[in-house]
């Protein structure tokens, strides 16, 4: 059985859309919703919601008013999962028909980590939001949007690192550790999901800055220079970005502001770490 793990924080409308969409999925599966510090009507909706599939509802957060982050929420969902396979998918990711079965079919070999196709609505393309069409995938494409893996493998590598409690970093950290553990990474074109990415453009740029800083922390945690190059936070690469992007970002369209914000966040994190060491 597949356990679909959905962390959520104060986005009841999106969560309801996702859960009702899952009602049409075929196959044997359960859904585990982890309400992380929700203060809106998410819990009220979940109490009254009775889907055709098994549903577990967990609550995390300090007094249920302050979330502990997606990494911790996903870990709690994984602990409660009854399935042999974990399928991580955030509340703003809407699966298409056959999504669960496509992930199930991908696990014909041990230690497989399956990454599905992630698409954006037309109005968000080029905005800097994540889109993955394949066919090549790498460890940094392992995210909580559309990824499945054996529960045993997830537990073997220690799950998500809850130290990444702010936005960003937890996915690439997990992907790197799965790569080191010898995962068999596959792209599943038929496992299609739409990433609605509902944030306002200003918020998306803020998140890009946070992601830059978080990726620096992933590199510093493991000390592998390959991480810095793969995630775009190597000091040499950042120096080039900081020199060129302010004047050339317009050539990148909507993605230019995102790329510059990411570089700024990474640069600031590097400078802060230098000051800490001195």
Describe the protein.
The protein is of the alpha/beta class and 278 residues long. It folds into two domains: 2-195, Spore Coat Polysaccharide Biosynthesis Protein SpsA, Chain A (Alpha-Beta Complex); 201-277, no CATH class. The chain is built from ten helices and eight strands. The chain has helices at residues 12-22, 42-48, 70-80, 99-106, 151-156, 170-180, 201-222, 225-231, 235-248, 255-277, and strands at 2-8, 29-36, 55-60, 85-88, 93-95, 112-119, 147-150, 184-195. An eight-stranded mixed β-sheet has the order 3-2-1-4-7-6-8-5, sandwiched between helices. Helix 2 links the parallel strand 2 and strand 3 (55-60). Helix 7 (201-222) runs parallel beside helix 10 and helix 9 packs antiparallel against helix 10 (255-277). The longest helix is centred in the C-terminal third of the chain and has 23 residues, at 255-277. It is globular and about 55 Å long.
List the keywords.
alpha/beta; eight-stranded mixed β-sheet; 2 domains; 278 residues; single chain; 19% strand; Spore Coat Polysaccharide Biosynthesis Protein SpsA, Chain A
Task: State which percent range the strand residues make up.
Answer: 15-25%
Biggest sheet character? 8 strands, mixed
CATH architecture of the largest domain: Alpha-Beta Complex
CATH class designation of the largest domain: Alpha Beta
Structural class category = alpha/beta
What is the domain total for the residues? 2
CATH homologous superfamily identity of the largest domain: Spore Coat Polysaccharide Biosynthesis Protein SpsA, Chain A
- Placed side by side, the strands forming the largest sheet appear as 3-2-1-4-7-6-8-5
Alpha carbon gyration radius: 19 Å
Approximate shape? globular
Distance between the termini: 52 Å
N-to-C SSE string, H for helix and E for strand: EHEHEHEEHEEHHEHHHH
Number of helices, where a helix is a run of at least 4 consecutive DSSP H or I residues: 10
Strand tally, please? 8
Mean model confidence by pLDDT: 91
CATH topology (fold) name of the largest domain: Spore Coat Polysaccharide Biosynthesis Protein SpsA, Chain A
**Residues in helices, as a percent range:** 40-55%
Low-confidence stretches: none
The quaternary organization reads as single chain
